[in-house]
Amino acid sequence: MDKTFDFKKLESGLYDSWEKSGVFTPKIETGKQPYTIIMPPPNANASLHIGHALFVTVEDIMVRYHRMKGEPTLWLPGADHAGIATQVSFEKELAKQDKTRFDLGRDEFVKQTFDFTVKNRITMENQLRALGASCDWTRKKFTLDSDVSEAVFTTFKKMYDEGLIYRGERIVNWCPRCATSLSDLEVEHKETEGVLTYIKYPVVGGGEIVVATTRPETMLGDTAVAVNPNDKRYVKLVGQKVLLPLMEREIPIITDIVVDMEFGTGAVKVTPAHDSTDFEIGQRHGLPTISVIGQDLKMTESAGRYAGMKTKEAREKVIADLQTVGLIEKTQPHLHSVGRCQRCDSVVEPIISKQWFVKIASLAKPAIEAVKRGAIKFIPQHFEKLYFNWMENIRDWNISRQLWWGHQIPVWYCQAQQVKSDKLKVISEGGDNFIVSAERPGKCPVCGKCEMCQDTDTLDTWFSSGLWPFTTLGWPKSTEDFKYFYPTTMMETGWDIIFFWVARMIMLGIYCTGKPPFELVYLNGLVRDQEGNKISKSKGNVIDPMMMVEKYGADALRMGLVVGTAAGNDTAMSEDKVRAYRNFANKIWNAARFINLEVSTPKAVKEVELTAEDTAWLKEFDEMIRETTKMMEQYQLGQAAEKLYGYFWHTFCDKHIEAAKPRLKDEQQKETAAAVLDHILKNSLIMLHPFVPFVTEAVWGELYDDQLITAAWPK
RNA sequence: GGGCGGUUAGCUCAGUUGGUAGAGCGUCACAUUGACGUUGUGAAUGUCAGAGGUUCGAAUCCUCUACCGCCCACCA
């Protein structure tokens, strides 16, 4: 054996031999309870970052542990097409060549994006291998695989047929840069310094009512003024009309409970087409919606003489015009939150648009129940509160995106009825005569002749992600895999995607299969830098996991990520820490090297005569096994790792090996000392293996004949 | 407006049935052909944010306060 553990030389060979030996692929053994983790599929648009390395480590530890316990263990890998994220990142690639997606056209764009994801997937899969991920590559999936897509379309159709998906003209979050609608979750609110403008609206028949707004240009689309029903100041005005300035349109003064008497003047202009609260007020009062801003952020025809202007320009002009007629009372600085696109940071515009929605209430109810009755448990448990908090206030989910990259919505329109799209390149087109079908329909059932055209929208990427725990296992077909491995055991992912992903998997899982998709949700935290800062490219504190693997080995990185980390808590990562665990891997190597040199053909501890001290040591070791196993069962991985680390280094190496040195030279004591060392080393290697798989397997190969990865966990 | 989390060694953090405070890095002293210097031995450093309560006993349970951080929301 070399003097140090040469991870660079050994790691990839060790991985290959595991993979080739087929141990990653479980055998279906009826009667045995399987242990299943579906890997959160990394986005196919980039390499793995340190956060991926953390989840890979945690999952691989659990998978190796359960495999060693003799359970049929499946860890199913995959990749996510990551709709908007990938489209935005590939568009950035195109921008480097001064191109936009429109230069390529939809088909070519999709083709090139696909090629882009294929490249990324290959890189990503090799990175997973480098980290030691013992997942079953024979079962790997991609969200755009034909069988997965088919399951997605089938689900869409089922939900439509059962009234859970509807198409509606509603107010949605519109990202002008991405040219698509977004779900509420994809909008990030940021505090922004704005201006509150107080505008006087003349009351028909005399007087005036002052409203305050941060967006004066939207007044062109006002269809009411609202006050709180309990507001004494305006009692006399309610029911009267105001003459909307600039547009010279009469609109009513109404009451609505959402109006805050304390804010501004207590009177609010209502623009149902450009504000979600106003939209709801409009719905309650049957107000018309007048869209004055288009998808391109230009004022529409309905904006009268402001038509064609950009919103910013229109705002200035509206203020100037109001000023001229003396209708601006005052302005004041105002801090408020502005929605921005999660992917590209553009300011999101609420507009009216025809979109597809999931009716969420009936899906949320059993999903809340499942967690309440403990069918699904969260680690750490306090995240259940967060889950309930969101689920109990959940709103319908906009699932259509005006993107090109993703699952195209399986809805087919009769072309005879098709509404011609306008000049906008991205508008979702289609009339009202459509059918929903998982496959391209043969003949148009509406006109009997046309080739139906498919909806141009794609599905929110999280729709397919929500089905992931079972589409990966072959659902909706009743495959052997689905029958055996579903419901899965654990879903391990970041707490930051509880709403995006975990909640949707629970809702759709129960809806589609009748069962919660997993028993346990283990939430890992964010990996931060040494000072506890969030890691980001702009801060320049990115820790590339592959660089760490290159410099210190995968074992060192894994230990560095997992020791001192608790579920749900953020982890501070530093190179120093990784270096320290590189030393630990080397310590393991050298302890084994010593025993390899000094001990040959050791007997079992049962076959030798033990001293009282030996017995005490073995008892202490058994206690360590018991405690560590308990921690593993309770998913206290950081503590288990630390215990093993401390025991192996400071008890086994520093005490036992040191004490054994003179004994091994003594003919009388030699046999016993060797047996005890071998016993503890062997079982320590087994328990350390899930954490540091490479060095333990390498050492095992030097000492024993079989493979460590399938050795039995000690009892 | 509602909710959640944190406050433990110089730094970053563990500490899950309440029982004499732990790790990594850093610091100091000593050891040095011996499995490993990617080492060993020893040492220093903590009123576990503050106050009150429960208890034989609290970093751990309860209440309040302070300061950080985060999430959600229809802040016109």
UniProtKB/TrEMBL annotation:
<dbReference type="InterPro" id="IPR002300">
    <property type="entry name" value="aa-tRNA-synth_Ia"/>
</dbReference>
<dbReference type="GO" id="GO:0004832">
    <property type="term" value="F:valine-tRNA ligase activity"/>
</dbReference>
<dbReference type="GO" id="GO:0002161">
    <property type="term" value="F:aminoacyl-tRNA deacylase activity"/>
</dbReference>
<dbReference type="InterPro" id="IPR014729">
    <property type="entry name" value="Rossmann-like_a/b/a_fold"/>
</dbReference>
<dbReference type="InterPro" id="IPR033705">
    <property type="entry name" value="Anticodon_Ia_Val"/>
</dbReference>
<keyword id="KW-0436">Ligase</keyword>
<keyword id="KW-0067">ATP-binding</keyword>
<dbReference type="InterPro" id="IPR001412">
    <property type="entry name" value="aa-tRNA-synth_I_CS"/>
</dbReference>
<keyword id="KW-0963">Cytoplasm</keyword>
<dbReference type="InterPro" id="IPR009080">
    <property type="entry name" value="tRNAsynth_Ia_anticodon-bd"/>
</dbReference>
<keyword id="KW-0547">Nucleotide-binding</keyword>
<dbReference type="GO" id="GO:0005524">
    <property type="term" value="F:ATP binding"/>
</dbReference>
<dbReference type="InterPro" id="IPR013155">
    <property type="entry name" value="M/V/L/I-tRNA-synth_anticd-bd"/>
</dbReference>
<protein>
    <recommendedName>
        <fullName>Valine--tRNA ligase</fullName>
        <ecNumber>6.1.1.9</ecNumber>
    </recommendedName>
</protein>
<dbReference type="InterPro" id="IPR002303">
    <property type="entry name" value="Valyl-tRNA_ligase"/>
</dbReference>
<feature type="domain" description="Methionyl/Valyl/Leucyl/Isoleucyl-tRNA synthetase anticodon-binding">
    <location>
        <begin position="616"/>
        <end position="714"/>
    </location>
</feature>
<feature type="domain" description="Aminoacyl-tRNA synthetase class Ia">
    <location>
        <begin position="14"/>
        <end position="573"/>
    </location>
</feature>
<keyword id="KW-0648">Protein biosynthesis</keyword>
<comment type="similarity">
    <text>Belongs to the class-I aminoacyl-tRNA synthetase family.</text>
</comment>
<keyword id="KW-0030">Aminoacyl-tRNA synthetase</keyword>
<dbReference type="Pfam" id="PF08264">
    <property type="entry name" value="Anticodon_1"/>
</dbReference>
<dbReference type="InterPro" id="IPR009008">
    <property type="entry name" value="Val/Leu/Ile-tRNA-synth_edit"/>
</dbReference>
<dbReference type="Pfam" id="PF00133">
    <property type="entry name" value="tRNA-synt_1"/>
</dbReference>
<dbReference type="GO" id="GO:0006438">
    <property type="term" value="P:valyl-tRNA aminoacylation"/>
</dbReference>
<dbReference type="GO" id="GO:0005829">
    <property type="term" value="C:cytosol"/>
</dbReference>
